[in-house]
């Protein structure tokens, strides 16, 4: 990689790397597929809720049955998507280390950062920012096309946190026995929750896709 930028402040080994980046494209694809499934399923939940609130469907039992089935599918897709995302995220962080960049954390924190109280509020975002900026720097420094424009990763984290807070409050209410059949009937709060969850899935897809497409360009034109 004779054209790789050399920045002693950014690189550990003066631009020389021991190995090329590990292929993370397949993991990105699987993550996108899973979150696309989440997006579609939550869209169906949203349509179900709106149908009831707008009076298009008035049978409460039908609505609850449809929501029950969809909620199970959303849960399975969400858990699957999160696991796949973590696998992709860790390798993405590892790859910028392989290129030669110094990072603030070891790659294990790309997963562990989501599960440690307090640290979970900012570690994942900081790691994503490192990946985003250093992949962008590498592409621009080598005159390679990239897709890392704007603050998409910032919106990704904003909606992830908001979605997590909503899910946490809902779970606590269920554990405390504050949720009954009547409270499960769709409300405009349910619609708001659905919209936040949709945006969370959408920006996750956009972030992963942007980094995946940039990795493709680096492999094709830069030999990374």
Give descriptors for this structure:
disordered N terminus; 224 residues; mainly alpha
Summarize the biggest pleated sheet. none
User: Helix amount, in percent?
Assistant: 55-70%
Radius of gyration of CA atoms, rounded to a whole number: 21 Å
Shape: elongated
Task: Decide which structural class fits the backbone.
Answer: mainly alpha
**N-to-C span:** 7 Å
Please work out how many helical segments DSSP would assign: 6
**Overall pLDDT:** 86
Count of separate structural domains: 1
Low-confidence blocks of residues: 1-18
User: What fraction of residues sit in β-strands?
Assistant: under 5%
Count all strands and give the number.
Answer: 0
Encode the helix/strand succession as letters: HHHHHH
Q: Tell me the quaternary state.
A: single chain
Structure, explained:
The protein has six helices and no strands. The protein has 224 residues and is mostly helical. Residues 1-18 have low confidence and may be disordered. It has one domain (25-222). It is elongated. The N and C termini lie close together (7 Å).
């Amino acid at each position: 990689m004779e054209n790789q930028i050399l920045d002693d402040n950014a690189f550990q080994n003066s631009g020389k790397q021991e190995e090329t980046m590990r292929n993370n494209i397949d993991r990105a694809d699987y993550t996108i597929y899973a979150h696309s499934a989440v997006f579609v399923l939550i869209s169906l939940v949203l349509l179900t809720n709106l149908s009831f609130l707008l009076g298009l469907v008035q049978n409460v039992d039908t609505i609850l049955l449809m929501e029950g089935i969809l909620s199970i599918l959303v849960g399975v897709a969400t858990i699957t998507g999160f696991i796949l995302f973590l696998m992709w995220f860790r390798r993405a962080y590892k790859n910028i280390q392989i290129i030669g960049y110094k990072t603030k954390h070891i790659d294990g924190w790309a997963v562990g950062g989501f599960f440690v109280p307090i640290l979970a509020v900012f570690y994942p975002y900081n790691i994503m920012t490192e990946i985003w900026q250093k992949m962008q720097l590498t592409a621009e420094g080598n005159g390679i096309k990239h897709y890392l424009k704007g603050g998409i990763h910032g919106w990704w984290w904003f909606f992830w946190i908001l979605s997590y807070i909503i899910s946490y409050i809902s779970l606590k209410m269920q554990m405390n026995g504050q949720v009954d059949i009547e409270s499960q009937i769709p409300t405009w709060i349910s619609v708001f929750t659905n919209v936040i969850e949709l945006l969370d899935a959408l920006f996750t897809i956009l972030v992963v896709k942007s980094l995946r497409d940039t990795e493709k360009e680096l492999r094709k034109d830069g030999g990374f």
